Amino acid sequence: MTEATTYQTSRTALRVENARLVDGTGALPVDDAVVVADAAGVLTYAGPAALAPPAGGEASALRVIDAGGRTVLPGFFDCHTHLAYAYGSPPGRRAELDPVLVTYDTATRLRQTLDAGITTARDLGGLSTGYRTAVETGRIPGPRLHTAVRIISHTGGHADFRLLDGTDLTGGEMAELADTVDESRLAVRRTLRAGADLIKICATGGMASPYDQPEDEGLLEEEIRAVVDECRRHGGKPVAAHAQGTAGILNAIRGGVTSIEHGYGLDAQALELAGERGVFIVPTLSTVFGGIDKDAMPEHHYRKKVRWSGVTKENIARAIEQGARIALGTDAAVCPHGRNLRELGHLVDLGMDPMAAIVAGTRTSAELLGLADRLGTLTAGKTADLVLCDGDPLADIGVLGDPANIVCVVQDGVVRKDLLPTAEPTGTRGTNGTEAR
Ligand SMILES: [Zn+2]
């Protein structure tokens, strides 16, 4: 596939016809729908073809996409990625890699993620802000990015990947260490200075970290509260808490975080408290159920994963059943990149309705990122981020997990991926957009 067929920066008005609309609000699908975006990449209509404005009134060129009866959905979110890291490449060895190759490989991962249907990603550690700018300015194709840049952790905590003697081989891109309330505030300030869109903290130990366990507590509740307050003083930036064991999850919720990442130990009490405070849960099931490989991971990591997958099944199934505010995140890098929407299938396996899973990956995720005013649903006035897929995702949510089924991706009104059959009239019509229908 050549770049020319898949990546174009020119934007025209768009009209998707002959589509089945799943708009991300949870509303029933609309058969024979039309979606229209203007030349600025803003949706002007999404609904039944019978009520659609007639084509031909556009002031500039119009690109018509015949969906051929396929389903059109909002561009999806992945709220928990690590795009700067290859799958299975431990952050502790980053300094051994050629930084130029890391940059090219990261650009490839951004492309793969976009091709998987993810038009917006939130990176929770390791991705510098240059990538966000590179996407924003059209230098490289990729999901629009929010990045935490680094992760705030205690010495020896989940994001401290130094060797036993303290030698740092991570290249300094991963961790911001803090061990007191004051140091926690300083760590936030340093991270915001690096351009972070949000702050990521470690409220517990983890699976891949060598020195701690998922049930170990991370930042103290008063340190978490200081982090949240420091973010409040900087425009109310969200705080994402890596939190796996129950005690740390409770510390994070009481400390005022925006989202619980992983949340495997989210027991009934923690779930209730999260509900009261409106805290989002990002369960990253892809790494729990899709990332277990005895041969590819260190022994300590493998044993932790097997033990925690059972706990996760019970707790996240309860959270789904009770209608927790669940957003889509994968922890990609711990699981393979470019297969992000497999997460939808894992949510459905734990009892979520396919339509609810789609809402989790679109509208609820947009709410978590503070972007719901312009992304996450397909209604007039929103940004034209669209995905067209083969198959029926409401009958088999698994179709979205295979990027081969994601036949068209539109971002900001620009067609970023187009695998639609060339026989269909997907080309740009005359510059006056008046071709007879
Ligand atoms: Zn992570």
From TrEMBL:
Recorded superkingdom: Bacteria
Stretches assigned to the Amidohydrolase-related domain: 71-414
Name of the protein in its database record: Amidohydrolase family protein
The species this protein was found in: Streptomyces hyaluromycini
